[in-house]
């Protein structure tokens, strides 16, 4: 992983995830973050490992996977650019529940999870704002997962 | 020719080509035996008749060319059929040289000409790529007439993808092709997830884009929401509905969807018209 420098509140404000967030909050979050780029094949984290960070993808795709006995690392979802990668840093026991790999070169903003938790604890407005933004990410992924569970493209004669 | 006087009489077409797309889906090349049906517009469908078995609505997946040597009396058509029942099973079982019947073309198409000068987002779920293929081919054949073209494809597995032999050519001709599957198979290095995850990566200007959607109804609903959430106007989203089309002429009423007779008023309808109907139970 190559670190490509620090970031500013202005650079965060251009990201959809942070749209509308007050500048002081952006500045506080930017102070916990840096800009990184990783090559194809880079593993961000492994299931069960300590969850200390999260990323906001700027370019490239990241796949989430789960080790399945006999099948290896099975990809369960791909995250496109502009996605948030990682929310286990937010919830005890702060362990990753899935793995994440970059199948191609990825650039991202990387945030220090512990530092962001401290910011949220010290400023309840920032904490509520950020929690709602993560809740929206979770809602979107939950809805997408539920639609996938419908197996819409299955052959009509196939039991579902 | 199918005419107002004989709209219920199938016109014989000979199967001159057959390509297995997946284990249950086939693309047939069809040439008129004598008289052709009127040339379909992208998005229109025909009633396709397996003689002695029955008739089903099938969208047209390629229109033309019309051989310059006059070897056929009308444009060659391709129709892509998934074997899901007795009639579609019989059609999928046809071989080159055999004859099927066509009635039509029926319904309202995508109205591609109204999208000239605009960016295009084509969102296809499963076999929904078939009726969008003529739109893509039209846009690629007239690159100066349209803006950027993004084709978003969702499929169940990599083995269920259609027209895989053409995807690289479409890319080479300028289309952005993005593919995602619900279930990856070993060796798949593409995207995994719902088609809505492709919406943010479509390289179009939402303010000047038109979106055409075809696939299972729930897929179209969530994709339309994602597209409008990205800034494409509701009025610039069109989708292709599927109901139990029988006559193709709005006579029998089997395909009624609220105030619509889908065979006549659709299958392509504006999202603004379809959206209120798509969440009504048992409609």
TrEMBL record, chain B:
Q: Name one GO molecular function term.
A: oxidoreductase activity
Q: Which domain of life is it from?
A: Bacteria
Question: Could you tell me which residues belong to the region Disordered?
Answer: 1-20
Q: Which cofactor does it need?
A: [2Fe-2S] cluster
Q: Does the keyword Ubl conjugation apply?
A: no
Protein's UniProt keywords contain Isomerase? no
| Listed Gene3D superfamilies | Nucleotide-binding domain of ferredoxin-NADP reductase (FNR) module, Translation factors
Q: Where in the sequence is the signal peptide annotated?
A: none
> What name does this protein carry?
Oxidoreductase
Which part of the chain is the FAD-binding FR-type domain?
8-112
Q: How is the cofactor bound?
A: Binds 1 [2Fe-2S] cluster per subunit.
Residues given in the record as [2Fe-2S] cluster binding sites: 247, 252, 255, 263
- Give the InterPro entries listed for this entry: Cyt_c3_hydrogenase_gsu, Dihydroorotate_DH_Fe-S-bd, FAD-bd_FR_type, Flavoprot_Pyr_Nucl_cyt_Rdtase, FNR_nucleotide-bd, OxRdtase_FAD/NAD-bd, PyrK_electron_transfer, Riboflavin_synthase-like_b-brl
Q: Could you mention a single GO BP entry for this protein?
A: pyrimidine nucleotide biosynthetic process
Assigned keywords, A-Z: 2Fe-2S, Iron, Iron-sulfur, Metal-binding
Which species is listed as the source? Actinomadura logoneensis
């Amino acid at each position: 992983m190559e670190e490509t420098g620090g970031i500013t509140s202005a650079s965060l404000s251009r990201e959809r995830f942070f749209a509308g967030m007050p500048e002081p909050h952006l500045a506080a979050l930017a102070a916990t973050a840096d800009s990184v780029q990783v090559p194809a094949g880079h593993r961000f984290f492994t299931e069960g490992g300590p969850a200390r960070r999260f990323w906001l993808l700027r370019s490239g795709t990241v796949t989430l996977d789960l080790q399945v006995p006999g099948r290896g690392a099975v990809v369960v979802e791909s995250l496109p650019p502009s996605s948030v990668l990682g929310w286990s840093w937010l919830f005890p026991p702060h362990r990753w529940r899935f793995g994440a790999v970059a199948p191609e070169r990825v650039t991202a903003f990387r945030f220090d999870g512990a530092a962001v938790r401290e910011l949220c604890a010290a400023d309840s407005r920032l904490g509520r704002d950020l929690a709602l933004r993560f809740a929206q990410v979770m809602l979107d992924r939950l809805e997408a997962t539920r639609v996938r569970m419908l197996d819409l493209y299955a052959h009509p004669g196939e039991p579902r | 020719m199918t005419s107002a006087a004989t709209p219920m009489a199938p016109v014989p077409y000979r199967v001159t080509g057959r390509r297995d797309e997946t284990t249950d889906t086939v693309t047939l090349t069809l040439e008129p035996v004598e008289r052709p049906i009127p040339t379909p517009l992208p998005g229109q469908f025909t009633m396709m008749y397996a003689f002695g078995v029955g008739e089903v609505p099938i969208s047209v997946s390629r229109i033309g060319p019309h051989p310059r040597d006059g070897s056929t009396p009308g444009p060659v058509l391709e129709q892509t059929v998934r074997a899901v029942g007795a009639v579609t099973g019989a059609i999928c079982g046809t071989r080159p040289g055999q004859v099927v019947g066509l009635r039509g073309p029926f319904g309202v198409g995508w109205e591609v000409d109204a999208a000239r000068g605009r960016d295009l987002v084509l969102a296809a779920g499963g076999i929904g790529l078939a009726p969008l293929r003529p739109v893509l081919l039209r846009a690629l054949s007239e690159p100066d007439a349209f803006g950027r073209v993004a084709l978003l494809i969702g499929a169940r597995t990599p083995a269920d993808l259609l027209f895989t032999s053409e995807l690289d050519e479409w890319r080479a001709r300028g289309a952005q092709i993005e593919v995602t599957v619900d279930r990856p198979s070993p060796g798949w290095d593409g995207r995994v997830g719902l088609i809505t995850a492709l919406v943010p990566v479509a390289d179009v200007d939402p303010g000047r884009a038109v979106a055409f959607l075809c696939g299972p109804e729930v897929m179209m609903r969530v994709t339309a929401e994602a597209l409008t959430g990205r800034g494409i106007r509701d009025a610039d989203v069109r989708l292709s509905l599927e109901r139990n089309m029988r006559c193709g002429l709005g006579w029998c009423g089997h395909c009624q969807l609220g105030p619509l007779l889908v065979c006549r008023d659709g299958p392509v309808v504006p999202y603004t018209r379809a959206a209120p109907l798509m969440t009504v139970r048992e409609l």
